[in-house]
Specification:
The complex is a heterodimer of chains A (about 325) and B (about 220). In chain A, helix 5 packs across helix 6 and helix 12 runs antiparallel to helix 13. The relative contact order of chain A is 0.12. Chain A has 13 helices and 15 strands. With about 325 residues, chain A is of the alpha/beta class. Chain B is built from 10 helices and no strands. In chain B, helix 5 packs across helix 7, helix 6 packs across helix 7 and helix 7 runs antiparallel to helix 9. Classes of the chains: A alpha/beta (about 325), B mainly alpha (about 220). Chain B: It is found in: Cell membrane; Membrane.
């Protein structure tokens, strides 16, 4: 670790990402004094952590690790209630709180009486998150919490974390070696190089658009341009509303493609002027909610080259043509 | 009184409670004392020593080396040596047996603590356990299955070894075997063996029960994997 200095803003997710040996886990453990820094200071709400007794400090900071680190000899409910017990809460109150949290992280309360071995890896990791949140600490440290589970479970755990964070607004420092995870979860991402030097600290979209140097560029990997689009809004995308036709429409149209829509306004398929008898597949996105990446992806799924804008209920609100997408992409490229 | 030698049951009934020191009942009580006390002592000695060895690794090699030597010493000469210190008392049998037990239990404590997964220990630290509380609430409970397995071995071997003490006049039920030297009469030998086996089985069953009560998660694990 060499001269590393950064700030994790209150209520945001700061991700530390880098190759192995970059000291990201070490940095994390310095925050709760599992490792003491030889030099320098770490401030928590302006108070140097070096001045706080380690067990007391740690009870006020949630911690989630890779294999969840659950206590195999304790039932799930007692695992979650670990820190409340340490803080001397009344047993009943601690357990009630634990049951609340199990539900909060999306676990069946029936699992409360089981032992960790009886749960899947993904479930154990959720318990790990619930345990870290049990005493409602303002700060959460997460050390590669999702890297030991399979990709599908990982995605759902990531989504769950973002959902939880939108409700709880914790100050989270999250360590990972997976740049995609960093970009997905981080409000800000700190890329570290070997030796614990900070290569770049920026919002994900800035990181993708303007990598500070070759190391960061290489670490970000392929498809940087496409991945950047996930931070470009579709709110301003120009939509056409004159390209739809009701089901059973058999008239002529000057347009090469028409979107056939059912009685409730939901898309059915694209009708090409060349082969009016067949319906071709379509892709949708929700303007404002989904990113340009999703809009572009939707266009690429259809031979029409257009993507269908729908509202939250799946009703068509318009069509983004290739022209409209081109225009938006050109704007995005400009910065 | 019949003509020939008494049957097994007759002999047992007549000698169960004669009021003398060598009644079967008294021998049985002595046997239980001389085996249970060393088991408890062994645990009391082995826990702190095992913890010390797990904590300061350099202690483990010399300690386990020494304990292996102790374990290799034949019991009879050790009992005889002890007479010069403790006389012809139960202590003469109890002390060496406690050492034998400790020799088995110290490695069990160390292995048990080694078996605590590192991520579990780390997460206990990160949750804010103090070192003592971590030991009592996390590490020792997780070491318990291995320690209890060692304790079962110690219990059965102590119960059986006590009888050797009969050669110095303190052998509990072993006293029933030495009589057979003087007088080739089988019932005491059979009663002695049967009671010792029964004691060993009961002790083992109690420890298995303790295992189930103290470490319910172990069965939970076996149930799923």
């Amino acid at each position: 670790m060499d001269d590393l200095s950064f700030e994790a803003p209150t209520g945001e997710i700061t991700v530390l990402v880098g190759p192995s040996g970059c000291g990201k886990t070490t940095s994390l453990r310095m925050i709760n004094r599992m490792i003491d820094a030889s030099e320098g200071r770490i401030l928590l709400d302006g108070v140097p952590v070096q001045g706080i007794d380690p067990p007391t400090l740690r009870r006020g900071i949630g911690y989630v690790i890779q294999q969840a680190g659950l206590f195999p000899h304790r039932k799930i409910v007692d695992n979650v209630a670990t820190v409340p017990y340490l803080l001397g809460w009344d047993r009943k109150k601690a357990r009630t709180r634990a049951m609340e949290l199990l539900e909060r992280v999306g676990l069946d309360p029936a699992l409360a009486g089981r032992y960790p071995f009886q749960l899947s890896g993904g479930q154990q990791q959720r318990v790990g998150v619930a345990r870290a949140l049990a005493a409602d600490p303002p700060v959460l440290l997460m050390d590669e919490p999702f890297s030991a589970v399979d990709p599908i479970v990982r995605t759902s755990l990531q989504d769950e974390l973002l959902r939880l964070q939108s409700e709880l607004n914790k100050t989270i420092v999250f360590v990972t070696h997976d740049i995609d995870e960093a970009i997905k979860l981080g409000d800000r991402v700190a890329v570290l190089r070997v030796g614990g030097r900070l290569a770049q600290l920026a919002e994900p979209k800035t990181l993708l658009a303007e990598p500070a140097d070759d190391f960061v560029r290489e670490f970000l990997g392929h498809d940087r341009g496409i991945r950047r689009l996930q931070f470009v809004s579709t709110a301003g995308l120009r939509l056409r509303t004159d390209l739809t036709a009701p089901e059973g429409f058999s008239g002529d149209s000057p347009e090469p493609w028409l979107l056939v829509v059912d009685g409730e306004g939901r898309p059915v398929g694209w009708r090409s002027a060349a082969r009016p008898g067949e319906l071709e597949p379509y892709g949708t996105f929700v303007p404002g909610r989904d990113s340009m990446r999703a809009a572009l992806d939707a266009a690429l799924l259809s031979p029409s080259g257009c993507s269908v804008a729908v509202d939250e209920q799946g009703r068509v609100v318009g069509v983004a043509t290739r022209n409209a997408l081109d225009l938006a992409l050109a704007e995005a490229a400009d910065g | 009184m019949g003509d020939g030698p008494p049957s097994l049951w007759e002999w047992f009934g007549r000698n169960w409670d004669t009021g003398r020191a060598d009644s079967i009942r008294n021998l049985l009580t002595d046997h239980i004392t001389m085996s249970v006390v060393p088991i408890v002592l062994a645990l009391v000695v082995a826990l702190p020593l095992g913890l010390a060895c797990a904590r300061w690794r350099w202690l483990y090699q010399p300690t386990s080396g020494l304990m292996n030597v102790v374990y290799a010493l034949p019991s009879l000469p050790v009992f005889m040596l002890m007479i010069s210190v403790t006389g012809l008392s139960q202590t003469t049998v109890i002390v060496p047996l406690a050492f034998y037990g400790a020799a088995v239990l110290i490695p069990a404590v160390v292995d048990g603590l080694d078996a605590v997964p590192d991520h579990v220990r780390q997460s206990a630290v990160a949750m804010g356990f103090t070192p003592l509380r971590r030991l009592l609430a996390v590490e020792l409970p997780l070491a318990a299955p291995v320690v209890l397995a060692g304790l079962r071995v110690v219990a059965v071997s102590s119960i059986s070894l006590v009888s050797v003490g009969a050669l110095i006049g303190q052998g509990g039920l072993g006293g029933l075997f030495t009589r057979a030297y003087q007088n080739p009469f089988m019932p005491p030998v059979i009663v002695g063996i049967a009671l010792i086996i029964a004691l060993a089985l009961i002790a083992d069953a109690l420890l298995v029960l303790a295992q189930r009560l103290l470490t319910p998660w172990v069965r939970a694990r076996k149930g799923t994997s």
